[in-house]
Amino acid sequence: MASNVPSIRISRLNDQTICSGGRYVLYWMSSARRASWNFALDRAIDHAVALRLPLLVVETLACDSPWMNLRHAAMILDGMADNAKEFQRARIAYLPCVAADSQRLERFLDTVTRQAAVVVADWYPLREATELAALVAARSPVLVERVDSNGLLPLAATDRAFPTAHAFRRVLQRSLPDHLADLPSANPALPARFPRLDHFPVETARSCLVGIEQVLGNGPGLVAKHSTRPNVVRVALSGGSRGGHKAVARFLEGRLARYAHERNQPESDASSGLSPYLHHGHVSVHYVFAELARKQGWSPDRLADRASGSREGWWGMEPAAEAFLDELVTWREVGFNMCAHRTDYDDPESLPDWARSTLDEHAGDCRPYEYSLDEFRDGLTHDDLWNAAQRQLRSEGIIHNYLRMLWGKKILQWTPDWQTALETMVELNNTYAVDGCDPNSYSGIFWVLGRYDRAWGPERPVFGKIRYMSSANTARKVRVRNYIERYLQPDAG
Ligand SMILES: Cc1cc2nc3c(=O)[nH]c(=O)nc-3n(C[C@H](O)[C@H](O)[C@H](O)COP(=O)(O)OP(=O)(O)OC[C@H]3O[C@@H](n4cnc5c(N)ncnc54)[C@H](O)[C@@H]3O)c2cc1C
Question: What is the location of CATH 1.10.579.10 in the chain?
Answer without folding.
Answer: 348-487
